[in-house]
C-alpha cells in the first residue's frame, strides 16, 4: 500500500469511539494485487490437490498458534458474542474439514470415454480452476463469511482476492498475519481494504465473484458481474420464519425461538425474524418467551459474560428502530425490550418481543437484523404455510411441532433452502455433507457448503480427439439436395 493511501476511521462497537484506521486500497492497488495473484495462480493449481493440501495443513498450524488472537480481534470488531471468541477455532475446523473433503470433491470430475454419437471420437474432460476468485464479505460474522468461500476456492486451485467489510477489518488483519507465515499461500491469497467502491474494483478484476451481504448491494454486484459476463454467487438477506404448532412443546419452542432470534444480537442472516404460533397456544407461548427473554443479559460490562452484545454497525440500530416504530404505529404491542440503549458508547437492544403484528408491517416483510421477535397467531396449518411463504426471501425456516414427522410435513412445503425441524439455527449441521440453495431474494448460485462449494470454482473443458479417419466434405450427401 503506498504511503499516501487514504485512511478510513473504524468505530469500536462497544465504546462508540474510533480506535482503529485502515489504509484504503486505490483502484491501482486492487489491479496490482490482482495481477500478482493471477501471475502466481498457475503454480498453485499445478501443485495438484495433494500439494495444495500440504500447504493448507501448514496454514492450519499457523492459525492454531494464533487462534486466541483471531478470536479477540473478531470480538473487538463485532462487539463480542459467544462465537466471536471461537472464530480462530472455527477457522481451524473449516480448513481441517476441507483437508479431508477437498480430494473427494475432485473425484469423478475427470473421465475419458468414446463418444456415443461419434464412436471414433474420444471424449476426455479436464477441470480447471477459475484463476482469480473475488470474495466480498459483510460485517456480521466477518471472518467466517470471508472464509466460507475463500477456503474452498483456494483448495480448488484458484487465487483469492478478498474485500472484507470496512466495518470489521481487525479480524482480517489478524488472519492475514497467519497467511504471511505460509509463503505459497500468501502468493495466492490477499485482501484489499475499503468500502463499496473497492468491491466494484475487485469485480473488475476477478473471473468469478462470491458475495455475501444485503439484497441492494447484491443487486449491484450481480449487475456488475453481468456486465463482465462473469458468474457470481450471491448469499443475501433473510426474513426467516418459524412455525410453532398447537401440539409443540411450548417450553422447547420458546427456548429455540429466543436463541434463534437474538443470538449475536440478531445479526445473523438466518436469524428467526418472524414467528407464527397456533392461536390456541399463542398467549401461553408469548408468556413463556417473555419470561425467558427477561433472563438474557447484555454483555456491556463483560463481553465474555453476557448473552448479547451491542450492534456491530451503528446504522443497523436505526433500521431496527424504524421497523419497531412502523410496527407500533400500525398497532403492534411491544411485550419486552423495544428501546435501543446507549451504554458507554455501545448501542444495545434487549430481546424485543412484539404481538399484534401483521404483514403490512416492515418488521414482517424486510430484514430487521436485530434481536426482535414479532409473533403472529395463525388459525390452521394452511394459513401458517401461506404466511411463512409470503416473502421475497428464502434462506431458512423452522418448524416446531408435537413430532418431528408433523414438523417435516410442514417443512417440506416451505420455500427456503434450509428447513430446521424441532429447533432453530441448524445451518451448520449441513456442513461437509451437502449444501442447499437459497430461494428468491436470498441469493443464487451453487451451495456454499458441501462438495458443490468447491466445484463452484472449477470449469470443465472437453478434450475431443478423433481416433478414426477424418470426414471428407466431398462425401457429404444432402437428402433432396442438388446433385
Ligand atoms: P452490504 O451488502 O452492505 O455489504 C457487503 C459487502 O459488500 C461489504 O464488504 C461492502 O463493503 C461491500 N459493498 C458495498 N457496496 C458495494 C458495491 N457497490 N459493490 C461491491 N461491493 C460493495 O452488507 P452488510 O455488510 O451490511 O452485511 C449485512 C447483510 O449481509 C445482511 O443483509 C445479511 O442478511 C447479509 N448476510 C447474508 C448472509 C448469507 O449467507 N446469506 C450471511 C451474513 C450476512 P463495506 O462494508 O466496506 O461498505
TrEMBL record:
Molecular function GO labels: oxidoreductase activity, acting on the aldehyde or oxo group of donors, NAD or NADP as acceptor
Alphabetized PROSITE patterns for the sequence: ALDEHYDE_DEHYDR_GLU
Q: Does the keyword Oxidoreductase apply?
A: yes
Q: Which InterPro entries match?
A: Ald_DH/histidinol_DH, Ald_DH_C, Ald_DH_CS_GLU, Ald_DH_N, Aldehyde_DH_dom
Keywords from the UniProt entry: Oxidoreductase
Which SUPFAM superfamilies does this one have? ALDH-like (SSF53720)
Active site located where?
235
The Aldehyde dehydrogenase domain is annotated at 6-462
Q: Into which family does the record put it?
A: Belongs to the aldehyde dehydrogenase family.
Q: What is this protein called?
A: Aldehyde dehydrogenase family protein
Amino acid at each position: 500500500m503506498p504511503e499516501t493511501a487514504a485512511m478510513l476511521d473504524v468505530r469500536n462497537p462497544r465504546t462508540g469511539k474510533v480506535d482503529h484506521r485502515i489504509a484504503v486500497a486505490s483502484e491501482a492497488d486492487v489491479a496490482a494485487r490482482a495481477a500478482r495473484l493471477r501471475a502466481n495462480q498457475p503454480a498453485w493449481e499445478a501443485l495438484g490437490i495433494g500439494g495444495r493440501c500440504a500447504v493448507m495443513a501448514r496454514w492450519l498450524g499457523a492459525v492454531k498458534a494464533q487462534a486466541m488472537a483471531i478470536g479477540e480481534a473478531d470480538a473487538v470488531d463485532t462487539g463480542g458474542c459467544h462465537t466471536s471468541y471461537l472464530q480462530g477455532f472455527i477457522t481451524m475446523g473449516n480448513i481441517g474439514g476441507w483437508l479431508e473433503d477437498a480430494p473427494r470433491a475432485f473425484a469423478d470430475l475427470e473421465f475419458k470415454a468414446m463418444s456415443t454419437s461419434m464412436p471414433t471420437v474420444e471424449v476426455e474432460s479436464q477441470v480447471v480452476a477459475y484463476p482469480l476468485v473475488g470474495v466480498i464479505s459483510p460485517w456480521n460474522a466477518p471472518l467466517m463469511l470471508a472464509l466460507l468461500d475463500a477456503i474452498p476456492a483456494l483448495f480448488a486451485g484458484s487465487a483469492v482476492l478478498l474485500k472484507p467489510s470496512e466495518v470489521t477489518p481487525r479480524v482480517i488483519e489478524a488472519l492475514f498475519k497467519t497467511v504471511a507465515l505460509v509463503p505459497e499461500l500468501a502468493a495466492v491469497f490477499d485482501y484489499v481494504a475499503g468500502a463499496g467502491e473497492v468491491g466494484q474494483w475487485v469485480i473488475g478484476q476477478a473471473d468469478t465473484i462470491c458475495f455475501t451481504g444485503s439484497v441492494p448491494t447484491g443487486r449491484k454486484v450481480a449487475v456488475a458481474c453481468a456486465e463482465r459476463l462473469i458468474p457470481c454467487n450471491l448469499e443475501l438477506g433473510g426474513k426467516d420464519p418459524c412455525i410453532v404448532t398447537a401440539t409443540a412443546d411450548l417450553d422447547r419452542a420458546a427456548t429455540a425461538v429466543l436463541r434463534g432470534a437474538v443470538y449475536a444480537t440478531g445479526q445473523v442472516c438466518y436469524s428467526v425474524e418472524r414467528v407464527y404460533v397456533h392461536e390456541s397456544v399463542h398467549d401461553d407461548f408469548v408468556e413463556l418467551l417473555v419470561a425467558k427473554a427477561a433472563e438474557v443479559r447484555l454483555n456491556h460490562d463483560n463481553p465474555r459474560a453476557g448473552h448479547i452484545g451491542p450492534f456491530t454497525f451503528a446504522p443497523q440500530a436505526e433500521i431496527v428502530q424504524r421497523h419497531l416504530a412502523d410496527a407500533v404505529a400500525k398497532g403492534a404491542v411491544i411485550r419486552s425490550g423495544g428501546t435501543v440503549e446507549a451504554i458507554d458508547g455501545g448501542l444495545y437492544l434487549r430481546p424485543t418481543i412484539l404481538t399484534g403484528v401483521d404483514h403490512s408491517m416492515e418488521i414482517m416483510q424486510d430484514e430487521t437484523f436485530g434481536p426482535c421477535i414479532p409473533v403472529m397467531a395463525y388459525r390452521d396449518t394452511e394459513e401458517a404455510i401461506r404466511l411463512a411463504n409470503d416473502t421475497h426471501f428464502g434462506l431458512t425456516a423452522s418448524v416446531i411441532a408435537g413430532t418431528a414427522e408433523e414438523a417435516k410435513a410442514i417443512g417440506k412445503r416451505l420455500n427456503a433452502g434450509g428447513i430446521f425441524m424441532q429447533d432453530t439455527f441448524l445451518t451448520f449441521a449441513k456442513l461437509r455433507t451437502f449444501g442447499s440453495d437459497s430461494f428468491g431474494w436470498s441469493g443464487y448460485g451453487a451451495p456454499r457448503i458441501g462438495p458443490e462449494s468447491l466445484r463452484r470454482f472449477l470449469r470443465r473443458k472437453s478434450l475431443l480427439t478423433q481416433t478414426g479417419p477424418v470426414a471428407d466434405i466431398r462425401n457429404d450427401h444432402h437428402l433432396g439436395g442438388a446433385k
